Amino acid sequence: MTATRHTTEGFGSRDPGIDEASFKRLAAILHGECGIVLSESKKSLAVSRLSRRLRELRLPDFKRYCDLLESGGSADERREMVCLLTTNVTNFFREGHHFEALKNDILPVLVEKARRGERVRLWSAGCSSGQEPYSIAISLLEACPDIRRHDVRILATDIDANMVQTGRAGIYRDLDKAHVSPDRLKKFFDARPAEGNMWQANSALQSLVTFAELNLIRDWPMRGPFDVIFCRNVVIYFDAETQAKLWTRFAQILSPGGHLFVGHSERVSGPATSGLKLAGTTQYLKT
């Protein structure tokens, strides 16, 4: 961040509240920046998350904050706003039926493809703090212990730079309570006893995953194709038009026969339905 972190002395700790006009401006700025819809029901949450930022910037109200967001050279502050307003909920092997399908139906085919010397790529889009891509990496290593000898990589992206940094570090607390079995904990994580019950993804896991910051509604620097895409509980925060566009982009970057996993309350919609067919619970196949 280029904005200076100021003392909050003289600026009370109470949330300043937001007027209707400023909330509409804030919602429009957020939607334009990353496609997220900020509904009226999320007003109190937005005020709670952003109020401390206003105090840090010594701004008296949300009108002035919106002025800042709309001003020239405000890219860093808009990025900070997105980080504060995005929700990051994740866990290892979340929605286990997806990982069962990955293990039983998809990875045997991809492992054979890799052993033939072909390229295999998987993408965790909206990876949050990294538990999802590391779960994919564990699944790969269990399916093929020497997978690192082949041209197989996992791309993990998120709009929140803080989450990307956390994922890249691969350090987590209480993994023995987070759907990671004792056997997997021993095989794939290094204990950090000096820091309490902390664990770090080992070199085998980290070598398979590349973390990067990415805004899904902007240009994508990668061209694919991807054999598997996980984008779960992300698109639900977009409006219908943005969702349809994103499904189409995923379909275009998937390889023929590639798989797309979405969140439990998400469904592919729009033109992409002609090329993405339901193949399991919230699992789609590119035909």
Report on this structure.
- Residues 1-13 have low confidence and may be disordered.
- Strand 4 and strand 5 form a beta hairpin.
- The protein is globular.
- It is α/β, with parallel strands linked by helices.
- It starts with 19 loop residues before the first helix and ends with a strand.
- The chain contains ten helices and ten strands.
- It has helices at 20-34, 43-56, 62-70, 75-85, 96-115, 131-143, 161-169, 182-188, 203-206, 240-253, and strands spanning 120-125, 152-158, 171-173, 189-191, 198-201, 209-213, 226-231, 254-262, 276-280, 283-286.
- The protein has two domains: 20-85, Chemotaxis receptor methyltransferase CheR, N-terminal domain (Chemotaxis Receptor Methyltransferase Cher, domain 1, Orthogonal Bundle); 96-286, Rossmann fold.
- Helices cover 40% and strands 18% of the residues.
Brief synopsis:
By secondary structure, the chain is of the alpha/beta class. The chain is 40% helix and 18% strand.
